[in-house]
Amino acid sequence: MITLFVLLITIQDYICNALEKGNLEIMKWLFKNGCPLTKDTFYVAVIYGDLEIMIWLKENGCPWDEDIFVRGIQEGNLDNIKWLFKNGCPYDEEVFETSVSFGNLDIIKWLFENGFPYEEDIFNTAVQSIRPWRVVKMLKNVKWFFENGFPYEEDIFETLMSRL
């Protein structure tokens, strides 16, 4: 039993190493030699952002779920997010809010243009997401929400000033 546990850790280390290095040939070899493709494999692939490996994982039946799409949002690679969406990766109704919290305006715009659902108070979420170390980035997002007519509460600008 202990040997099996050590073996599994070693296999997972090899998978993570191959994904980190973007080494598709090692991934193919691991798979050919019985290494299972799990949701965690896909999750790590999204973290490292190698689209070629993500495509290979999908073609070889690697499972995915909503967490994969959310991780893509968090990593901020719009091309990978577009690919996940185009290829049917599931997502939940909070994906827009997640993108606002992480602050990548290009992703926010793309989600909006593609009809992803969002809450009525998404403008407030943008303001609440402002942190001192990313003020400029987040203010651009707030400006975009304002310019695009998203509804906001009357005291939103007081809240905004308190976040700066």
Automatic annotation (TrEMBL):
This is Ankyrin repeat protein. It comes from marine sediment metagenome.
